[in-house]
Amino acid sequence: MLRQFLLTSVMALSGLGLAAPVLAQDGPLRIEITDGVIEPMPFAIARFHDEGGAGEYLAQVQNLIAADLTGTGLFREIPASAHIARPESFDAPISYEDWKAINAQALITGAVRVEGGKVVVKFRLFDVFAGQPLGDGMQFDAAAGNWRRAAHKAADQVYSRLTGEGPYFDSRVAFVQESGPKDARRKRIGIMDYDGANVKWLTDDSTLVLKPRFSPDGSRLLYTSYATGFPQAMVMDVNTLASRPLGTGQQGTMSFSPRFSPDGRWIVYSLEKGGNTDIYQMDAATGAQRALTNAPSIETSPSYSPDGTQIVFESDRSGTPQLYIMGANGGEPKRISFGEGRYGTPVWSPRGDLIAFTRQVGAKFHIGVMRTDGSEEKMLTESFLDEGPAWAPNGRVVMFTRVTPGGDGQPRLHSVDITGRNMRPVKINGAASDPDWGPLLP
Amino acid sequence: MKLFIKLATVGAILALAACARPAQDMQIQDPYAGAGGAGMGGVGATALPGTAEYFKTAVGDTVLFAVDQSTLSSEARVILANQAGWLNQNQGFSAVIEGHADEQGTREYNLALGARRANSVQEYLVSQGVAPGRLQTVSYGKERPLEICSTEECYSKNRRAVTVVSPGAGM
Fold it and tell me: Which listed residue, A203, A326, A343, B41, has the most CB atoms within 10 A of its CB?
């Protein structure tokens, strides 16, 4: 039996997107990230089974899977108190009628056991109204300290099967923690799970540090440091915390805004000399550098396309900061932003289809996305000061910094999906800025 | 010569004798004594002309910029001409020129804008005769505001270049 799923659209939230038409879709159980207000898909997680020594992990794993899914804004959990059926074991047959009766469209069953210092998580996913499993059951195991990763992997499977999108829950985010008064901020770099858990500090706050950025495999971080008294681009090994400057810091120059190419062979960055800032490229192995732009304007915030052939960047050569694309070896840039105001911090989606950016119109800031030719521009957020988007590994969610106004103003990290829905804060203690979202973990 | 010394000695003796007069014959005037308003109870301090403190307070270490701009206003040029004058008179100092921006912009663009502002100041000082080797520039972008409110009143004070002098000949 094929699943009927109604996509009801009330009104497009912003930008140029047209309201999606009401559709009845034949096909697999699916919820999509598209324009318009979507009714979240109701799902249920049957109580997980303890298959040996699960202890507290049982509830924690189940709750984390639920939190990952509901956190996307696309799913709504039907609470255990409403469940009719309670499967006796992980392999017990499913009474679909009992789950249909409470309108659970998707059902997740699972089990956890602990053996030899490892947490083992099993799950199955069912399309309730089709009366059949959706994909195969799977098992993930992790060292006990990494139990959250096993839960994220299971949630990623469920999410991908139900949305058709790539996974993103099992990932880490680098960021800057800020403390102290606004005119004497102390900053340090941290890494955390995408949901704010497992924070690890990579620098102390004795030196001003900015804008950490992951290498493609997540093992290194580029960032900008004032350790020498002048902004200097640096690279750090995430595991050993060993850090060194990029290139030999030329006397009288500043380097900042570094990013790796997708193959890890190149680093693009901004180099300032004599008051002028251009984009340079460095061979990551040899340190050899060359200029990719050569203009009296400010060129900064470069970001590679995922196929490594192009670079999007910010330049004020037209008089105000705008977005431009050039070949990865330099060459004549083509402007892609044309709206009112100023555009900056462009970041190319890992899916290649969109560029996220910061746009300032008058006194308001927005996080936005546009197609790579500049078309279909859509604002996702608006506030006193939103800036610096970073892409989730699946190219469907963006994390950014929002600063509140005034002397007590604080920066906080938020995420939002590419339709502008589901904006929510990232749960970390204290003020934070400059997020960069790392790759999906293996 | 002998007479002179004799007279000087007599003068000294007389002066000492004057100091030996009994205390009640002298009125000691302490200009700072007594209850008073501001400044009456302490000791006034003025920086000596050849010091960093003097440069900062009397010469003026800061010039301001318009939104997005790095061009020098006529007021800025006056201050910078004075800065150059002081630097030319005090060759034992070098300077780091800090460029800053207000918070209404993205972080990296503001780093670059601050660098433009610092460079504008540096070029002007050099044009007024300061040896380039004595000057360095750095940008703090929007990282180190002077004023923390989020209105133009504060923003205008944050769009600045600050010339920080310190002893040392530079490069």
Answer: A343
Looking at A139, A163, A187, the residue that finishes a domain is A163
Instruction: Answer yes or no: do A298 and B109 touch at CB < 8 A.
Output: yes
> Could you tell me which of A140, A148, A137 has the C-alpha nearest to residue A57?
A148
Residue of A176, A182, A259, A359 for testing the chain B interface, max B β-carbons within 10 Å: A182
ipTM: 0.91
- Residue of B70, B65, B52, B72 whose CA lies nearest to B163: B52
- The domain of A270 spans 171-440
Interchain CB distance below 8 Å, B150 and A342: no
Nearest Cα of chain B lies from the Cα of A351 at a distance, in angstroms, of 25
Task: Answer whether residue B106 is part of any domain.
Answer: yes
* A256 interaction partners in chain B (CB closer than 8 Å): 108, 111
Other residues' Cβ atoms within 10 Å of the Cβ of residue B120: 23
Residue type present at position A240: T
Chain B hits for A259, CB-CB cut-off 8 Å, are none
Nearest beta carbon to residue A211 from set B107, B109, B148: B107
Nearest-CA distance from A407 to chain B in Å? 5
Which residue of B108, B148, B149 is in closest CB contact with A270? B108
Q: How many residues does chain B have?
A: 171
Q: Would you call A388 and B149 a contact, using CB atoms and an 8 Å cutoff?
A: no
C-alpha distance from B29 to closest chain A C-alpha (Å)? 46
CA distances from B9 to A201, B1, B14 (A): 77, 12, 9
Total of domains in chain B? 1
- Whose tokens are 């701009």? That residue is B69
Q: What is the DSSP letter of A238?
A: T
DSSP A374: S
**pLDDT by 10s per residue, chain A, length 442:** 323 222 222 222 223 333 333 333 457 888 888 777 689 999 999 999 999 999 999 999 999 999 999 999 999 999 999 999 999 999 999 999 999 999 999 999 999 999 999 999 999 999 999 999 999 999 999 999 999 999 999 999 999 999 999 999 999 999 999 999 999 999 999 999 999 999 999 999 999 999 999 999 999 999 999 999 999 999 999 999 999 999 876 778 999 999 999 999 999 999 999 999 999 999 999 999 999 999 999 999 999 999 999 999 999 999 999 999 999 999 999 999 999 999 999 999 999 999 999 999 999 999 999 999 999 999 999 999 999 999 999 999 999 999 999 999 999 999 999 999 999 999 999 999 999 999 999 9
> What's the whole-model pTM score?
0.88
Minimum CA–CA partner of A184 in chain B: B144
Taking an 8 Å cut-off on Cβ atoms, the answer to whether A275 and B119 are in contact is yes
> Nearest-CA neighbor of A133 among A7, A29, A26?
A29
Q: Which of A163, A198, A216 is the last residue of a domain?
A: A163
CB-CB neighbors (< 8 A) of A403 in chain B: 103
- Locate the chain A residue with the closest alpha carbon to B133: A252
Judging contacts by C-beta atoms under 8 Å, the chain A residues touching residue B122 are 275
* A338 plus A243 within the same structural domain: yes
Nearest to A419 by CA among A175, A30, A68, A74: A74
Say yes or no: A159 and A192 in one domain.
Answer: no
